[in-house]
């Protein structure tokens, strides 16, 4: 689909927008994601798709052809399903991002497939925390910032890392929107801290995977897809997946959809 970026100035603070199927698909943030893992595709009106897929960077990773999103889109085409697919429209793609997107655009899908809950909890530099807070405060100011650790990165630079935890009022809004049988949540594979990746990961990173998965489990009415444990054959950096990792996740998603269609 042809897409056109614009600044949507209906509010005092600009909202980022894309032109998609002659509709304005809007996102609440200061900056667009300019990387190759940004992707939007739709074969129907964006407000009423049969299936809405909303994913962070792991939906595409470093190879679109073998990605989860590319495989799912082809699968939906073969089943003649109407879909809207959104991959990492802004740098931080979280449950808050998803909630804002649904609210601003008034999207009402029959089925949702998402992998939110990971970026929400990962340890972040203060500059990244501030970007997340901007999204959160579009809802309200019910959140807290937690210090996680001082981390020495690959360049031996010490970085204080934090995460942001949304409060009960925001949590209840997100649950009201997504805690239903029409939501499929893909939990993050567990990764051992003993695996050596080229990009060094802080110790709290591995604990935060579990925290994010536990948060997803609190969506008591949604269907949760548990992926299990991934080793170095299934993830190349502890976050994104190899071809074999993608295939495991794709199969589990398709099995779920086959049960429903």
Specify the biggest β-sheet.
6 strands, mixed
Shape by Cα distribution: globular
Distance between the termini: 26 Å
Instruction: Note the total helix count.
Output: 6
Mean pLDDT equals 90
> How many beta strands in the DSSP annotation?
13
User: Hey, roughly how much beta strand do the residues contain?
Assistant: 15-25%
Q: Structural class per helix/strand content?
A: alpha/beta
Order of helices and strands: EEEEEHEHEHEEHEEHEEH
**C-alpha-based Rg, rounded:** 18 Å
Percentage of residues in helical conformation? 25-40%
Oligomeric state of the chains present here: single chain
Question: Order of strands across the biggest sheet?
Answer: 4-6-5-7-10-12
Catalogue the unreliable spans.
1-14
Give the key terms.
alpha/beta; 261 residues; three-stranded antiparallel β-sheet
Mind explaining what this structure looks like?
The protein is an alpha/beta fold and 261 residues long. It has helices at 68-78, 95-105, 126-136, 168-178, 203-217, 243-260; strands spanning 5-8, 15-20, 23-27, 39-42, 51-55, 83-87, 111-114, 143-152, 158-166, 183-186, 190-191, 223-225, 229-230. Strands 4-6-5-7-10-12 form a 6-stranded mixed β-sheet, with helices on one face. A 3-stranded antiparallel β-sheet has the order 1-2-3. β8 and β9 form a beta hairpin. The longest helix is centred in the C-terminal third of the chain and has 18 residues, at 243-260. The two termini are 26 Å apart. 36% of the residues are buried. Mean pLDDT is 90; it is low at 1-14.
């Amino acid at each position: 689909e042809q897409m056109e970026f614009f600044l949507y100035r209906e509010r005092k603070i600009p909202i980022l927008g894309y032109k998609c199927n002659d509709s304005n698909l809007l996102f609440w943030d200061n900056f667009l994601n300019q990387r190759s893992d940004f992707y939007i595709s739709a074969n129907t009106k964006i407000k009423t798709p049969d299936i809405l897929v909303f994913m962070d960077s792991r939906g595409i990773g470093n190879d679109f052809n073998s990605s989860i999103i590319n495989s799912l889109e082809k699968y939906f085409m073969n089943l003649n399903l109407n879909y809207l697919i959104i991959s990492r429209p802004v740098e931080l793609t979280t449950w808050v991002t998803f909630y804002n997107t649904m609210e601003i655009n008034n999207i009402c899908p029959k089925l949702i497939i998402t992998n939110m809950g990971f970026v929400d909890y990962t340890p972040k530099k203060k500059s990244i925390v501030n970007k997340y807070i901007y999204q959160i405060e579009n809802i309200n100011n019910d959140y807290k910032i937690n210090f996680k650790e001082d981390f020495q990165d690959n360049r031996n630079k010490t970085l204080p890392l934090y995460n942001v935890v949304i409060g009960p009022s925001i949590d209840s809004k997100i649950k009201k929107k997504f805690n239903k049988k029409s939501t499929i949540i893909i939990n993050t594979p567990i990764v051992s801290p003993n695996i050596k990746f080229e990009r060094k990961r802080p110790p709290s990173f591995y604990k935060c995977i579990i925290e994010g998965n536990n948060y997803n489990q609190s969506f008591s009415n949604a269907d949760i897809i548990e992926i299990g444990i991934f080793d170095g054959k299934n993830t190349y950096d502890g976050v994104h997946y190899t071809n074999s990792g993608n295939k495991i996740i794709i199969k589990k998603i398709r099995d779920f959809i086959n049960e429903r269609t």
